[in-house]
Design goal:
Length: about 180
């Protein structure tokens, strides 16, 4: 059952879009569209077939200073998978080795290796909020995304702002000195 909740949560992010809004953070100038980039959020495995979950980042160009602005995204700085996966790695690593965490996540259908798990566990990131469910400590981000998926099941698409709120805006969570 936990595997289903986690898969539902992560699949809710598939093809979600993120936009730069407002004005240029450097000079306050007017932003205009620049390009779109697709970034891999996670790879889910189902019956030995891989299913990449991707997100779309719409970058903007400042007409005044020429800076390229990247929108808030559901990733911690310096990570290659979505923040809920990093949160799962960190929470599970509290009670088991990084190799075992990778094995457990692979059993759940999340493709990740032990070296990536070790890297995420060692990063200085904000504390992970957790709840106990199914006899395990689960990150609140996973539960929030799962609920979000259920509320958007009929619309067929989860908005980027909703995903960011459920993930606690991880790209803004820069660790302090």
């Amino acid at each position: 059952m936990l595997t289903g909740v986690v898969h539902t949560a992560l699949q809710a992010c598939d093809r979600s879009e993120y936009f730069t809004v407002g004005s240029c953070p450097s000079c306050g100038g007017i932003l205009s569209g620049y390009d779109s980039r697709t970034r891999q959020f996670v790879v889910l495995r189902d019956d030995e077939q891989d299913h990449p979950v991707t997100v779309i980042l719409h970058r903007a160009y400042c007409r005044s200073c020429g800076r390229i602005c990247v929108p808030d995204e559901p990733f911690y700085p310096g990570t290659r998978v979505g923040s809920p996966v990093v949160d799962l790695c960190r929470v599970l690593a509290e009670t088991m080795s990084c190799g075992r965490v990778a094995t457990r996540l692979n059993q759940m259908g999340i493709v990740i290796d032990r070296w990536s798990v070790r890297s995420y566990v060692k990063k200085q990131l904000p504390p992970v909020r957790v709840v106990t469910a199914f006899g395990m400590r689960i990150p609140v981000t996973v539960i929030s995304l799962s609920g979000l998926a259920g509320s958007h099941i009929h619309s067929g698409h989860t908005g980027g702002e909703d995903v960011l709120a459920a993930c606690n805006y991880p790209s803004r969570s820069l660790p302090g000195p």
